[in-house]
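target protein:
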Amino acid sequence: MSSLAPLPSAGASRVVFLGTPEIAVPYLEALVAGGLKVELVVTRPDVRRGRGNEVSASPVKIAAQKLNLPVSHDASDVLKVAIDQKNLVGVVVAFGELISEEVLAQIPMVNVHFSLLPRWRGAAPVERAILAGDDATGVCIMRVVEKLDEGEVYARQEVAIDNNDNVESLKAKLNAVAIKLLLDKIKNGFGNGVSQTGEPSYAKKIKPIDLQIDWSKSAELIARQVRVGGAFTFVNGRRIKVLSARVMSEVSKDQKPGQVCEIDRTTCFIATGKGVLSLIEVQPEGKSVMKIEEWLNGARLTIESVFGI
């Protein structure tokens, strides 16, 4: 780490911001609202979306333009700002690219990471914490180094994970904590960082296989998949997303996993490998989101129906 540019011990008044998705926008807005001078915003290039092949800017770029801030798509452009290193720090929030050693040698950078490092280094720490059934996660303000999420930690705060937290609600709680920590460190100084200790774990990007429901698993595990978002299964040969569900029992009934074990006009209980899951909100393939009672009107399910096939 000797090649890294030193962090401003007495705090900074100037910032270079690197971020891309919607979750990074509140940080950029908070930096500006907090009186810090944002010298440059770096974000991922515009992408083509939709049938019309229209070009779409990242949420961070849109926010930066509204704030009349200069925008670049090339992280090496921060070197132009770093010619004057006085009171300058780089802030990285969900940028989506590794920062080069050349850049890190010229401008000190910190990153906001949603986990209690070294647990859940990587791309999807919130999702992996929920899937694993963790009781808590947290926020780390850490030094950006060339290796993924291995830098020293300058601020750390634990956040409890409630049983009803989904990715959106948990990120909202983490954001509220992280923005305060970040602003405090930038304005008042970073002090001495703490090296990460313990066995690391890695939060790999969520793939479809992580979200396909295996009804032989426990109702609790399946409910965690649903809370991550995008969980899906099949019934009567058609794919269906499960958007909201509730664990009803820790003890399975006599039905086989995936079989409907109780159904009426407003409820649908599914047997799992351990426990029973109640469906609350679903989205059948090619249709809009539906409350379970609305879907059951035309679903043609019986006590013999089996999910997962």
Summary: The chain has two domains: 14-203, 208-299. The first helix runs from residue 25 to 33. The two ends are 53 Å apart (CA to CA).
